[in-house]
Fold this protein.
Amino acid sequence: MIVAGALIAVATGVAYNLGAALQKREAVEVAIGTKHLLRALAKRKVWLAATVLSTFAWVGQVAALALAPVALVVPLLATGSAVLVVLGVRFLHERFRTSELVGVALVAAGAAAAGAAEAGSTASHEALRFSVQFLIVIVAAVCAALTLRWRSGVAYGAASGFGFAGVAIFSKEIGDGFAKRGFATVPHLLASPAPYLLLVVSLGALSLLQAGFQRGNAASVMAALSVPESIGPLIASFALYHEKYPHGVDAVILPAGLACAIAGSALLARHGRKLGEPAETAVAQG
């Protein structure tokens, strides 16, 4: 079960990043602010197709979270960010600074290491209280607002990551419900705030992500997204779901992997393009 969840998580991460590449391609073609960006993009067929792909990837994420621990699944989702570097160069004609490539590599490697450290754990199916679910949305919104003060593509990516951290947690709530009760869980889910909060944070995070794509390389934006998207559910896995913290060497690898991912994100934030500096005009430099 855990191995299946891990494999689904990796495949889901790749699918998310393929969808992100297509969304990036469309987002840079739309010269409009964040407020009305989703409405404009929803009229573009390629963007809608990419969003459908991301929706299928979300189904994979729900399945992975039902089969394997949060602390294993979420970091593995971030490993697909390396795919965006190749797609960015070949498909989107992006040019990366050396510092950006190093940052993306650190995030992907750190996420993979953190996931490997959790490979032997078991999944928890403990449901969260309704008050806790609302608190998660509030914390995500505050963190996103503070991050947006920097207004770079990487900042928008990180801000969307706080929203997608909420998506991961609410996705687990839904996946756990189906894992325990099957389709009989539908009435219980509809009576809980989880699916509605999932919709709210999904739309907010998606809007911020598209704004990030307008301002920076897709791989850099997604790498920045993956850090809060990983750390938030990791905190929830231990503090709220009471999953067991790894022992021995894995107890060191997990925080080291997260530190590596955070260092990569910090490098991206330091050298990422600011608002108004188009990605396509950046020159590769060390």
